[in-house]
Amino acid sequence: MKQNYPITILLALAFLIGCINLPARGEGWDERLLHKYADRSLTAYQTWMADGEVNITLDDLGGYGPSFLMLDELIFRPLHGTLPMHPSDIYHLINFVTFLAGMWAFYDLIGRWLNRSSAIGATAFFMAQPVFWGHAFMNSKDIPFLAFFLLSLTFGFRMMDSLKPIHLDMPNPRLKRTLTLLTALWLVSVLGAFAATGFIHALIEDLVRAAAAGETNIISSVASNIRTAPPEIYIQKFMILFLRVRLIYSLLFTCLLVYLYHRHARTILPAVIPVLLPAFLLGFTTSVRILGPFAGLIVAAYGLRTKGRKAIPTLIVYLLLAVAATYLTWPYLWEDPIGHFIESLRLMSAYPWNGQVLFNGQRYSPADLPVSYLPVLFGIQLTEPVWILFLFGFAFTVMEGLNRKLDVSNNTPILLELILLWFVVPILGFIVLRPSLYDNFRQLFFLLPPIFFMAGFAFSKVKQLKWQLVLILFAILPGIVDGIRLHPYEYIYYNRFVGGVNGAQRRFELDYWVTSYRETAEYMNNIAEANSYIWVEGPAHLFNTYARDDLKVLDAYDPNVLIENYYLVTPTRHDIDLLIAPDAEVVYTVLSDGAPLAVIKKLKGSEYNESK
To answer: Can you tell me the mean pLDDT for 162-170?
Structure first.
């Protein structure tokens, strides 16, 4: 237990700090949209068996995995009536706790190769990055994916470390063949019935419409009044019948198999039980973002590397259970699992975001970013010591791996292979292939933990504990100092290589989720006259959620409002503050380390009309 004290203290301290500064953090641009999607996904569990409909399309964000969003919503609902906090703060608290769970998983992973002090140092170094710390609160997509990706890896590695080979060791050959055949039949029939849902729906629709048109088939023989009601009613009825029959068949067949294995092959179930949690986490992670199977690939590579062919049966069970968990936690897949999964994969690989990306003073389409996009952002959005420590750690790891390559007890080659598979190869792929990216590199957070693995390896090369602690302190200090200075907008961080956020303003993206609108709303709550009209440019809902009830928030200019107390709130993104009412009186500017994030102006309707 004592060895867990350092990470427990670190996470508890981080939790305390996060709770103290929680009320200053604004809602992110699309948080509300994601909460609505979570509601629709949870509702699907009620409508699916009742009427065979999910009522979620790609336009409803169906291509996004909803597992964490649903979990977020389920935790939020009881807390909302209990905690005296703004609703957005409760959501942010849940996100932050998820981030801390990911940091525990990071520590558990890196502890396989490093001593405790180096592992704690690497974890603190990771947590102290302002970009990650800032996103940890309002980013309910990329931070949860990072956290569950790490959790999938740590429990997947544990599964492989404690591997109990799965094999049918039965003295009765006939019984063994019977169980094998039943298992194969289960795989083909049960999994096939789920995979073919889209095909079955199309077949039912074709048969019903043909029967309604007068053709004799199986539908017309069981539904004599098929022509007296709209075909859609019968399509729905027969689809519900199929779903219920499939459910009953699947449950009965699965229970039969479990009973037979428990009765005649008692070594199987104890070997499968340790796979359940890792497989569920992998499926859940895939249902957070469609790149989740990459975590399973890393676990499989680790298992094959350490256990050889003995790992294959376990990995097969791991894969099947993970697929089941993905299906159960992603309602959009239910109507056509394979087809909808492929649709989601295509959508996420080339997401049709229509905005422009500001990079080094130029605006680009997300699909036409320069090759330097990721290398430059990695260099200027992580703190200055990161890449120095990464290079030293990587060099030390390579040298140690070469010097001890014949030592079978040496884990360094496994670590090197992990770094290559997890970080180097995917990042090179993103740089070369240049898929659509926007909002800097937040979509790639899950690829960056290996950087801090190598930093931890650099820490471990300092053998005297006091000097190791000094190195760790100097490494994390820039992130802590700059995070305090930027609070509560840590996620806009740029390091001194580009002149900080002052050097990055109007050259790189800053407050792209317009979280600064909370500060503008709270300022207006204090100074605006009763019943003031406020034109909020951009995501007006971010302002409105914190504004006084009497304030009349408009999302566009109203030329009929010709009064004195008319205010304009604009973000500085895309220079909107310079383009709209440039000569109006500036009442307030939201600043973070000197960089403007949002501007409040006061204008007269008549004067603005004339200036237009």
So the answer is: 74
